Amino acid sequence: MKRLLSAVLLALLCLTPAMAAELADVTLPDTVEVGARKLTLNGIALREKFIVDVYVAGLYLTEKSNDPQAILANEGPRMMVMHFVRDVDAKAINEAWIDGLEANVGNVTPELREKFVELTKMMTDVKKGQEMGFVYDPATGTDVMIAGRPRGGIPGKDFADAVLATWIGPKPGPGKSFKQQILGGK
């Protein structure tokens, strides 16, 4: 049931709300609900690769924070959504996940590495206009959605933290400017 709620939640992101944030012609709502918890848009950022726009991301938290360690330490739900502004193949996405894991997680256990392998198996080519989402619920783990379809769930806060660290860790794959924006900076 929680996975169905996550699917409905991500589908609702496609609706244009009264209050919203916009970047690169992508609009994200200021708030969303995960289960009974309201999450607030912490920051919105544009991922660029070699001056080419790739996706607009939004990080939703129970309370806004610009402190990566505090965000990762928080035990509450959170959500990251990526709205793609160009086509990206699954191979490129998977390489970014593995690179991000290696660069941002100090001690990668075999169990965590296996969870990232599981994540790479969920990835598909993503087309312009499609969204990828990661909804973390402490009770169930992280639900992965691509193009409005549930791709599966991965248990454990260790995985949720490692995925988020690829964006807000010490060496974020999308770059320091992206990290600053997703943390609510300009």
TrEMBL record:
Gene3D superfamilies: 3.50.70.10. Residues 20-184 form the Chalcone isomerase domain. It comes from the Bacteria. The keyword Transmembrane applies. Coiled coil: none annotated. This is Putative lipoprotein transmembrane. Pfam families: Chalcone_3 (PF16036). InterPro entries: Chalcone_isomerase, Chalcone_isomerase_3-sand, Chalcone_isomerase_sf. Residues 1-20 form the signal peptide. The keyword Ribosomal protein does not apply. It comes from Pseudodesulfovibrio mercurii. Keywords: Lipoprotein, Membrane, Signal, Transmembrane. GO terms for molecular function: intramolecular lyase activity. The lineage of its organism: Bacteria, Pseudomonadati, Thermodesulfobacteriota, Desulfovibrionia, Desulfovibrionales.
